[in-house]
Design brief:
The complex is a heterodimer. Chain A has seven helices and seven strands. Chain A is an alpha+beta fold. Chain A has two domains: 125 residues, ATP-grasp fold, B domain (D-amino Acid Aminotransferase, Chain A, domain 1, 2-Layer Sandwich); 57 residues, Dna Ligase, domain 1 (2-Layer Sandwich). A four-stranded antiparallel sheet of chain A has the order 1-4-2-3, with helices on one face. In chain A, strand 6 and strand 7 form a beta hairpin. Chain B is of the alpha+beta class. Chain B folds into three domains: 79 residues, Rossmann fold (3-Layer(aba) Sandwich), CATH 3.40.50; 132 residues, 2-Layer Sandwich (D-amino Acid Aminotransferase, Chain A, domain 1), CATH 3.30.470; 65 residues, 2-Layer Sandwich (Dna Ligase, domain 1). Chain B has eight helices and 15 strands. In chain B, the strands form four sheets. Chain B has a five-stranded antiparallel sheet with strand order 13-10-9-14-15. In chain B, strands 2-1-3-4 form a four-stranded parallel sheet, sandwiched between helices. Chain B has a four-stranded antiparallel sheet with strand order 5-8-6-7, sandwiched between helices. In chain B, helix 1 crosses helix 8. The longest helix of chain B is centred in the first third of the chain and has 16 residues. Chain B starts with a strand and ends with a helix. The chains are: A alpha+beta, B alpha+beta. At the A-B interface, helix 1, helix 2, helix 3 and strand 1 of A face helix 2, helix 3 and helix 4 of B.
Chain lengths: 192, 292
């Protein structure tokens, strides 16, 4: 776990208001948990399968398919497989040589990723709605979301934290502005 | 009839005593009129078909078992271990912070942040706790990722290894005892009491033989619940109170007649002929809790 998780944890122990909560940090970082909670909240999500069987992935989803790791050592990574041999390679890599399960999703259309800052993003309405609702649910101020676009709809696919290199000066300005607006209105109370 | 799925992995069937315990759970469930099936990783998508989930595979907030627990919880199923218990017990930093908050007597503990990993801080730790000290990675289980350090070099070596997966580590005073108490707790009641002894010349219940990869374990001595000290049982219950009402194994050290909590484990070991030795209804009680 990284320092940010422990900062949230420390604040929670002291009963200070904090976003995101330590539970939301864990949940958002595990793709199947992100999707089960998002689906429960009414967000359109990509179908998924948690398994340690390549055969099951092929029989359920066919190709192309996207794989995400579900293990304590791999973060911020996914692999796409368009055929059987690519799937076996991706599975071996993400399952750490068949030790852990993976989360598989059918690649239904195109996979896009975008930055979500306090739930705001500069994309079409369907994607903006996902971004806002994911923020409402997990309260993670800065992140990267993966969405699959197919049949004119957007489906939440995954969450990744942003690396320092991905945060641009314009993003920092946006964050500062959001915090300024929130403190001006006294909206810090919604943290409680 | 309640449909219970027991989430297991292949390694749960490697030890004949653990396999025996799993079979005992199945027998207990059948005798109580419930359906008990083993669920492996490729059957996770079948969770909604069950009424309750019992996790026996090793838990970790970043592992598949947490996904199983949280999925079951979100679907409204009864689940042991529940996600909150996994989150707290699966991270020792979280656990010890809560011990401090709720005044649970525990081994003197400090937290070491990656940013303050320098000579002065290490010397300060040795000065406060004496030599040696125990360094724990937050994700420790089965005595793994718990090591002793007697000098700055070994401290740095161990800490650098543990910092690979966590930015914060736990450092504790070294308090050797010939055995640790293990109190099994379910739903705010003591389920069983054991002593986990240390092997001769060792300071942990589980340790590696020099040059061998395999872990060897000290003896497990089971006691009748009412023959164990009342204060011990009270402290065990108090230590679980703020975590939840699931199934826990509380490790406690007895030092000069005083009890200090070492840690609370979710997903405690239950091996046939060991933890259940003096309390054969352990299996029925857990099944009854799942079926409630």
């Amino acid at each position: 776990m990284k320092t940010g998780y422990y900062v949230s944890l420390h604040a929670e122990t002291l009963e200070d208001p904090v976003i995101p909560s330590s539970v939301d940090i864990i949940d958002a970082n595990r793709v199947p948990v992100l999707l089960v909670r998002a689906a429960k909240a009414g967000i359109l999500t990509a179908p998924y399968l948690v398994t340690d069987s390549v055969k099951q992935i092929i029989s359920e989803f066919g190709f192309p398919v996207v794989l995400f790791p579900v293990n304590p050592f791999s973060f911020n990574i996914f692999k796409t497989a368009k055929n059987r041999s690519a799937l076996y390679r991706a599975f071996k890599s993400l399952s750490m040589t068949y030790k852990y399960a993976v989360c598989a999703q059918p690649l239904m259309g195109e996979m896009i990723s975008f930055k979500s800052i306090f739930g705001k993003c500069q994309l079409d309405e369907a994607t903006r709605e996902i971004s806002e609702r994911v923020y409402e649910l997990f309260k993670i101020p800065i992140c990267k979301l993966y969405v699959q676009r197919a049949n004119g709809k957007s489906y939440l696919s995954a969450f990744h934290p942003l690396t320092m290199e991905e945060i641009l000066p314009s993003d920092v300005r946006m964050v500062s502005e959001m915090i300024f607006q929130v403190s001006k209105k006294g909206e810090h109370l919604w943290l409680r | 009839m309640v449909k219970i799925a027991c989430f297991v992995e292949k390694y749960n069937f490697m030890d004949p005593d653990e396999t025996g315990a799993l079979q005992n759970f199945k027998l207990a469930a059948s005798s109580m009129g419930h359906n008990f099936s083993f669920m492996f990783k490729e059957q996770i998508s079948e969770i909604p078909r069950y009424d309750a989930i019992f996790i026996r595979a090793t838990t970790d907030p970043l592992n598949t078992s947490y996904v199983v627990s949280k999925t079951a919880y979100e679907l409204g199923l009864r689940v042991v271990d529940d996600p909150k218990s996994i989150q707290i017990c699966g991270n020792k930093v979280h656990l010890y912070r809560l011990f401090e908050k709720y005044n649970i007597p525990h081994i003197p503990t400090m937290f070491l942040n990656k940013d303050e990993f320098h000579h002065k801080r290490i010397m300060n730790i040795f000065k406060t706790f004496g030599i040696p000290v125990v360094i724990k990675a937050p994700y420790t289980s089965f005595s793994k990722y718990v090591e002793k350090a007697s000098c700055e070099t070994s401290f740095r070596e161990v800490a650098e290894k543990f910092f690979r997966r966590s930015d914060v580590l736990v450092v504790q005073k070294f308090m050797p005892t010939p055995f640790d108490w293990r109190v099994g707790v379910l739903n705010d009641e003591v389920l069983y009491v054991c002593k986990y002894t240390m092997r001769k010349g060792r300071w942990k219940h589980g340790s590696k033989l020099r040059g061998k990869p395999r872990y060897v374990w000290g003896r497990t001595v089971s006691l009748r619940k009412d023959h164990s000290p009342l204060k011990l049982r009270e402290i065990a219950l108090k230590a679980c109170e703020f975590i939840g009402r699931g199934l826990y194994g509380v490790d406690i050290k007895e030092i000069n007649g005083e009890y200090v909590v070492v840690e609370v484990n979710d997903n405690p070991s239950i091996y046939a002929g060991f933890e259940d030795c003096r309390k054969k209804d352990v299996y029925e009680k857990i099944i009854a809790y799942l079926a409630d």
